[in-house]
Each structure stands twice: as C-alpha cells, then as structure tokens.
Amino acid sequence: MQETEEQKYLFICQSKSCLKRGSSHVRKELKQQLKENKMHKRVRVVNTKCMDACKCGPNLVYGNKLYQEVGGKDIDSIIRACQ
Ligand code: FES
C-alpha cells in the first residue's frame, strides 16, 4: 500500500454576516497563498454555512482551532499553521 500525504481542510464561513465582514476576500487570499506556496492540493478550502458566531466573523476553522475576525493581516499566520 502506498502512503500518501494527509489531506487537510480549512473551513471558512461564507454565510451572510461573514460575507459582509469580508470572508469572500479572505477565502480568495487564502486560496491564492496556498497555490503560491504549492499547498493547494494538500490543504483544501471548504465553504461552510453559518458557524453561529456571526458577531466575530469572518470565522474559519483549521484543525481544532477556530479563527475569528480573520482579515488580510492573518493570512500569513494561517498559511504557516497549515504547513
Ligand atoms: S455568518 Fe459566519 S458565523 Fe454566522
């Protein structure tokens, strides 16, 4: 049996409140950075519905960690966490 690299998932809310707070832009930036770092096949960005934490959006989950109020300033640290 051939061993393959583990697939990881980054879940980002794309519901109304988070969209108003810029989650679409965050999603786009994350996907671009993952591709530039050749991580896009190993780390998939998955859209989710409301995570019931709207006041702290944009919200995303990677591994067991919830990231809140995510903006452009946070992209680099999230990418590093995915490495
Ligand atoms: S809309 Fe994103 S957590 Fe509710």
Please characterize this protein's 3D structure.
With 83 residues, the chain is an alpha+beta fold. It has one domain: Glutaredoxin. It is built from three helices and four strands. The chain has helices at 16-20, 23-36, 75-82; strands spanning 8-13, 43-48, 60-62, 65-67. Strands 2-1-3-4 form a four-stranded mixed beta sheet, with helices on one face. The two termini are 25 Å apart. Residues 13, 15-18, 50-51, 53-54, 57, 59 line the site of FE2/S2 (inorganic) cluster.
Please describe the topology of this protein.
Blueprint: E1 8-13, H1 16-20, H2 23-36, E2 43-48, E3 60-62, E4 65-67, H3 75-82
Parallel strand pairs: 1-2
Antiparallel strand pairs: 1-3, 3-4
Helix pairs in contact: 2-3
FE2/S2 (inorganic) cluster is lined by residues 13, 15-18, 50-51, 53-54, 57, 59.
What structural keywords apply?
four-stranded mixed β-sheet, alpha+beta, globular, Glutaredoxin, 83 residues, Thioredoxin-like_sf, (2Fe-2S) ferredoxin domain-containing protein, binds FE2/S2 (inorganic) cluster
